[in-house]
Amino acid sequence: MVADDEAGVRESLAIMLREEGFTVTEAANGREALDAMARSDFDLVIADLRMGDIGGMEVLRRAREVAPQTLIMLITAYASIETAVEALRQGAQDYIMKPLVFEDVLRKVRHLLEVKQLAWTVQTLRREVERQYDFQNLVGRSAAMREIMDLIRKVAPTKSTVLITGESGVGKEVVARAIHAHSQERDKVFLPVNCGAIPESLLESQLFGHLRGAFTGAVVNQEGLFQRARGGTIFLDEIGDMPFSLQVKLLRAIEEKEILPLGSTTPVRVDVRIIASTNKELRTEVEQGRFREDLYYRLNVVGIHIPPLRERREDVPLLVEHLVQKHNRELNKNFKGVDNAAMKVLMALPWKGNIRELDNVIERAMILGEDDWITVADLPRAAGAEGDLIPYATDNLREAVRVYERTHIQTTLRKVNWDKRRAAERLGLSLSSLYRKLEELEIGLHEE
């Protein structure tokens, strides 16, 4: 926004900025400037210091209250050290004098907006410094994983929307981040949001932003993720849970490249890539009237399906190796890996929670384990969601019997709250025989 009561200066400056590709709002005085800020968000406000009753300092003060993310540049024909210091102290980002040299103004405008974008990018990417979302996190040698990696290489350089499907825990966000990491916008932000974990009213505000007073508690203007992305990627996790009323607004954002913040009547242009994911069958959701058909086709320009882990068991050893290395760093451990017996167990499990469940099992084993290798004894009694006994896949009959006995006795002890007498009765053993078994199988007297 350009706010100046001298029409010639205001109009000339606005024309110059528009020719450089900026969207410009003009305000002929301080009152118009304040009204415009109440209606819309601005990246930058250029305001004359003296504009009748409401001057640039008042515009600056009000901007700090209602739009703290807006940058302010003050201009004046009456410059002094005192006014410059006061303007900067109050939060102005720059201060220039009339007569204006348009080349200097344009240089300052570009610099301020670049700094603003860079600050947001650095804030978001700082959390990612230690995490490289490249193919190193897409672990697997199965045909399915090779096909997924090939799809990522092809779709990443485009701006097309991508729909990632698969059960919970298969790694949909890892795939989304890999697409972003290989895109031409890899240096821009990646913003994930879980559409099923946020109430409808808050989700709309988080995605599209709001103006001050749009609802109770909206005390300042707030940008949504679509505005903050600024050329980056928004990952809409669990898109199948998005409320039906918001689906039409998302469709508009995809088709028209513009959004309407809550409380605003003026659309805002946005530049963002959308990647969505779901563990639901969206075609069924469309047939049952819970998901818009037109939005489904807009999202599913390129579809990537990630099979469950139980359908690609050949990926388990590589995943285990990757997870051990990850948790060695995070837990400050030095495990060499998983021994053969434990690996056979991990290969045989149904993994109803997919990679997320495998990750939890490996992390727990590394916390409790004391040797260089993760063994069967370090694994939980049941990794399956239903609490089934682990199908210990070992070729050695004696070891298989020992593992089963240990697991079964521990299960029975937990059921009776480690009451040895009651456990012996249930197991059909004498109390002395149970104690011998506990010693033989290395079961503590009060394990948890």
Structure report:
This protein is α/β, with parallel strands linked by helices. The protein is 46% helix and 11% strand. It contains 18 helices and 14 strands. The strands form 4 sheets. The chain has a 5-stranded parallel sheet, with helices on both faces. The chain has a 5-stranded parallel sheet with strand order 7-8-11-6-12. It is elongated and about 100 Å long. 31% of the residues are buried.
Question: What descriptors fit this protein?
Answer:
448 residues, 46% helix, five-stranded parallel β-sheet, alpha/beta, elongated
Question: How far is the first residue's CA from the last residue's CA?
Answer: 64 Å
Task: Give the spatial strand order of the biggest sheet.
Answer: 2-1-3-4-5
Biggest sheet descriptor = 5 strands, parallel
Mean pLDDT: 84
Residue stretches low in confidence (pLDDT < 50, at least 5 long) are: 129-133, 382-389
Shape: elongated
Secondary-structure-derived class: alpha/beta
Q: Please tell me how large the radius of gyration is.
A: 30 Å
Question: How much helicity do the residues have?
Answer: 40-55%
Estimated share of beta-strand residues: 5-15%
With helices defined by DSSP (H or I, 4 residues minimum), what is the helix count?
A: 18
What is the subunit arrangement here? single chain
How many strands? Answer: 14
